[in-house]
Amino acid sequence: MVSYDVNNLATEIFTYEFDSDTGYTPLSSVSGWLANNIGMFNNRLFTTFEVSGNYFTPTGSFQQEERSVYKQMYLYEFYTKKTRQVLRGIDSSVDFITLREGDSTITRTNKNEIAKTYRGLANDANEELEKLVTSYNMYQAEPVQVAGEDGLYVGSGTYSYVY
């Protein structure tokens, strides 16, 4: 059985998506999310992966396709969470964006635009996630039932059912 380290995938996300910048999120937060949301992952892909300690325990193997989907799930949830955090800050913030007095100008970051940007990133991540999940499920699907002529095997002029 192949085991894939949760911390390995978390490190990959942390290094390549966030350039190892703890200002975005700490590595422990990424690995914690991955370990605690394996059920959501299983529901999307119709799989039965588990996490035991720091390792996925797959019934089969956790390949690149599964890693791509799980990483995209994390990114979608991350950007959605960032949108909520920014919007919480808008409720309690000061109303001005630019303040001018004489030669002095003070410009604050427009949190509404930042929230829109994170929302756009979340939407992009969700679209990519849906494409990955659809492709995965389409190529991993096996027929549940064979009926009619689909179950017939044409050999040397005779028909026989394949079970």
Strand-helix topology:
Layout (H helix, E strand, L loop, with lengths): L3 E2 H11 L10 H10 L1 H8 L4 E3 L2 E3 L6 H28 L6 E4 L2 E4 L3 H30 L11 E3 L4 E3 L2
Antiparallel strand pairs: 1-3, 2-3, 4-5, 6-7
Helix pairs in contact: 1-2, 4-5
Describe the structure.
The protein has 163 residues and is an alpha+beta fold. It has one domain (4-161). Helices cover 53% and strands 13% of the residues. The chain has a three-stranded antiparallel sheet. β6 and β7 form a beta hairpin.
Summarize this structure briefly.
By secondary structure, the protein is of the alpha+beta class.
Question: What is the molecular shape?
Answer: elongated
**Cα-atom Rg, whole angstroms?**
24 Å
Major sheet details: 3 strands, antiparallel
End-to-end Cα distance, whole Å, is 28 Å
Low-confidence stretches: none
Structural class: alpha+beta
Give me some keywords for this one.
two-stranded antiparallel ribbon, 13% strand, 3-stranded antiparallel β-sheet, 163 residues, 5 helices, alpha+beta
